């Protein structure tokens, strides 16, 4: 009988000083069926928390909404700021996401998934099937936004989307 999946949920706020050690501890667990869910809870550390997470995994931000045009507009502005930081980091590290020598064909997409619950489930499931990745890193609040601007979307993600994906990909 396979081991049940265990999720380690790590809420992080300005984790530059402690997140690396905490994430390393979670990754060092020897339990075979483990996933790590990291929630960046509105960090204002200039992207340091995200850079640490990028070294260890793939980020697919997901906005579950019934009005993508309205709800994604402020996120798009925040993402432009974040991507400017990432592009600087990538340029300085000589690769995509800090992985030197990676080609565009080898790059795993990490852009936002935005849509209704059904659209987000379908796109995230397709991503999991294509890349075989089931660990989830989720960003609660993009840089420059207030936590209250994202809380209802994060709740829908955690309460509605994640259980549906877990049912599709058990164990």
Structural class: alpha/beta
Instruction: Give helix % range.
Output: 40-55%
Tell me the fraction of residues in β-strands, as a range.
Answer: 15-25%
Pick out the low-confidence regions: none
In whole angstroms, how far apart are the ends? 10 Å
> Would you tell me the overall average pLDDT?
76
The oligomeric state is single chain
Main sheet specs: 3 strands, parallel
Tell me, briefly, the overall form: globular
Identify the strand order in the major beta sheet.
1-2-7
Order of helices and strands: EHEHEHEEEHEH
User: What's the Cα radius of gyration?
Assistant: 16 Å
**Tally the helices: what do you get?**
5
Number-wise, the strands total 7
Describe this structure in words.
This protein is an alpha/beta fold. Helices cover 45% and strands 16% of the residues. It is built from five helices and seven strands. The chain has a three-stranded parallel β-sheet, covered by helices on one side. A two-stranded parallel ribbon has the order 3-6. A hairpin with a 2-residue loop joins strand 4 (95-96) and strand 5 (99-100). The protein is globular and about 45 Å long. The termini are close together.
Précis, in short:
By secondary structure, the chain is α/β, with parallel strands linked by helices.
